[in-house]
Amino acid sequence: MSTSESTDVLVIGSGFGGAIAAYHLAAGGARVTVLERGPWLTADTFDHDFKLGSSSTRIFDFTVGDGMSVLGGNCVGGGSVVYFAAMPRAPKYVFDRHGSIGRRMWPSSISRASLDPWYDRIEEALPVYPQSWDDVPYAGGLFGAACNHAGRTANAVPTAVDSSKCTNCNWMMAGCKFDAKRSMLLNYLPGALAHGAEIRPLHEVQQISKTDDGNYRVSYNVLHDVDYRVILESGTIDAKVIVVAAGAGATPAILQRSEATLGTMPDAVGKYFSGNGERLNTAILNEDKVRDLLGLERENGVAYQANQIGKGPCVATWDNLDGSLPEYERYSLEQLYFPPGLGTILVQVPGMEGPSWFGAAKKELVKEWQNWLTIFTMIEDDNEGVFGPPPTTGNSWRVSQQMFGLGTLKYDPHPTTIAAWDRTDAAVRDIMERDGLSRVMPWTNDLIGAYTVHPLSSCRIGDDPATSALDDTHELRGHPGIFVTDGASVPSALTVNPAMTIAALAERAVPSIVKAAQARGVDVKYGAPSPGGETAGRAGVRNLSIVRD
Amino acid sequence: MADAAQTMTLEAFADTIIPGEKRYPGDRAIAGVSTGGGAVAGGAIDILNTDAGGLAAALPDLAAALNGHAEAYAAEHGLTLDADVPPFVALESADRIALVSTLCGPGHPQKQIWVNLAVFSNMAWDTGAHMHTHEALAQGHPGLAATGFTTPDPDGLWRFPHYTYGRQLAQPHPDTTPSGSPA
């Protein structure tokens, strides 16, 4: 292509970080183009189907690394489309974490108190709902009762799920068929579109370079809509400001590839990756004990047998989110759901010697699947992850047409991380095996290393240029006009689900991005209201001649 | 390698991941250490041959490599393999298990390849991912049946009108904010 298209702001990725920035910039008057490498699906096209090629593989990526595998969204709406929508705020102490760098990892300008107004905005915009125990599915109720039996507190977690629409189908990872889950598809992205933003699906960014006039040029490949390994065409778009929000597993690869054309990247690009300290245990419940110890019984007379029913994580125990405890000893435990396939392969047989993730005993264990309860651990890891040289395109060497790929992330957990996981494994056993309630085993790390559904920190904000790629406005150090607003910017593991914090940080970053855009000659203002129900009205009038171009 | 030998080899691998019962007397690929259908009956070979899976073109090499590892294993352990079947198929069940543990275990240089094969084998059994799930359920897919995965509503979607115990089952943490977050 001999000529390049142009826009004011080019946003790479359309998850929380990209959608929030795109909405505010478009609403403020900027020309905004969003390049999203995944497809554009909606409730009409999400599937309840495990078949390869259904929405469960079209919109979801599983990237295997060395010691850490990353699961994430790959579609318009990004992680917000495949997430489980648990939306707690991060506890206060998180913002004071030092990790192993000898100083506060978070910028001094950010604390829980300073972030709370931005959390408020997200809570209003999605919206986020407090859950009542009437909303809590059997699995969450059982975990809550087990915590209570073990002398612990347990909370119904706030979620971005409209319970009046939710059918508790547990197909959240394939996209919500009922629009009960509040993703970016239902608020920020339609708001951005109503203000004239353009979203291009199946556009995978390859590299960023500079133009002669001091702006940026983004080169992209258009991918086949079924076989993501196939490139159909390529192109470029020039922009005055770039927002990189490809996800913590993909943002580093884009910046690494761009080093040849942009110049030296901050040292922290592709380093300090955190898996949010995640780990999973599976408990196999004893029905009689569930009834006798916890007094639980369902409408059909059985005590549990409800692994399939629900809406992801609904109940957590937060007794160890205690700021008076030493760093690395704080964690939360949360009831979770994983579907068959990815949710069974790593499960081990309790009490069996040697590898037990496969074989006859494993098969027998799967026959008890409806009596499984998965417990999700979030500890403070030590930002051990480092990305190797980027793959030729994207962030992995794709094996399958969709979903499976081999990435470059290397993660070698430090002793503090291993000790923290051991501590939580013991806590899960204490809760779930007490008085014979269930048998518990952690998922094996032998096959794919550790794993995370919440990749973080691979291009993080901070005050120290040596250990943070971004300043506290999310601007990439040494590259004015390039901002990173996705999970990569979060400095550390949060010990709770991170979507709320990723979104709040993106909201907080927008005023700085607007200022930078203004300084680079873009006619844009800041101050759009939350993209709520009024977006439908805006969409209705967007084609009238009186509306701004 | 002939197609039949390749298929037998891959079936034997899948059967090691999730074993099933022999399909007919003299079935060599299936070790026969379990009752009911396993990964092979679940459709492991069909999944491996899908375009979507991305492994189809590599299957001849994978089968050959697996048999190469089986021969090396046999030599290392002083085993004489029946030459009538591919080397991996000739291994007894316990030896197949030991070899698969090594191939998929930490430190093996080809680990990612064999884990991939294991993942697809497992997926065949408990999701039948080469078929639409409602069709797999209607046909009595062995793995989905084993999990007790329920059938969907007539429109192909799952809904659970009964889903909650409907009562408070624990005390919330004392430092919980009004909107439900940790303080």
Structure description:
The complex is a heterodimer of chains A (549) and B (183). Chain A contains 12 helices and 21 strands. Chain A is of the alpha/beta class and 549 residues long. Chain A folds into 2 domains: 1-52 and 73-125 and 176-272 and 458-549, 3-Layer(bba) Sandwich (FAD/NAD(P)-binding domain), CATH 3.50.50.60; 130-159 and 278-378 and 412-448, Cholesterol Oxidase, domain 2. In chain A, strands 4, 5, 16, 17, 18 and 20 form a 6-stranded mixed β-sheet that branches. In chain A, helix 1 (16-27) runs parallel beside helix 11 (499-519), helix 4 (112-125) packs across helix 11 and helix 6 (188-194) runs parallel beside helix 12 (534-541). The mean pLDDT of chain A is 95. By secondary structure, chain B is mainly alpha-helical. Chain B has one domain (3-147). Chain B is 48% helix and 0% strand. Chain B contains 9 helices and no strands. Chain B has helices at 3-17, 39-42, 44-48, 59-76, 87-90, 93-104, 111-127, 133-138, 142-147. In chain B, helix 1 (3-17) packs across helix 4 (59-76) and helix 1 (3-17) crosses helix 6. The longest helix of chain B has 18 residues, at 59-76. Chain B is elongated. The model of chain B has no long low-confidence stretch (mean pLDDT 96). Chains A and B meet through helix 5, strand 6 and helix 9 of A and helix 6, helix 7, helix 8 and helix 9 of B.
Pick out its properties.
heterodimer, A: 549 residues, alpha/beta, FAD/NAD(P)-binding domain, Cholesterol Oxidase, domain 2, 2 domains, six-stranded mixed β-sheet, six-stranded antiparallel β-sheet, 12 helices, B: 183 residues, mainly alpha, elongated
Which helices and strands, and how do they pair?
The complex is a heterodimer of chains A (549) and B (183).
Chain A: E1 5-6, E2 9-12, H1 16-27, E3 32-35, H2 55-58, E4 60-66, E5 68-73, H3 79-82, H4 112-125, H5 138-149, E6 155-156, H6 188-194, E7 198-200, E8 203-210, E9 216-223, E10 231-239, E11 241-244, H7 251-262, E12 278-285, H8 287-294, E13 315-317, E14 332-336, H9 360-366, E15 372-378, E16 386-387, E17 397-398, E18 404-410, H10 415-432, E19 438-442, E20 450-452, E21 482-484, H11 499-519, H12 534-541
Parallel strand pairs in A: 1-10, 2-3, 2-11, 3-7, 4-18, 5-20, 11-21
Antiparallel strand pairs in A: 4-5, 6-13, 8-9, 9-10, 12-15, 12-19, 13-14, 14-15, 16-18, 17-18
Helix pairs in contact in A: 1-6, 1-11, 4-11, 6-12
Chain B: H1 3-17, H2 39-42, H3 44-48, H4 59-76, H5 87-90, H6 93-104, H7 111-127, H8 133-138, H9 142-147
Helix pairs in contact in B: 1-4, 1-6, 1-7
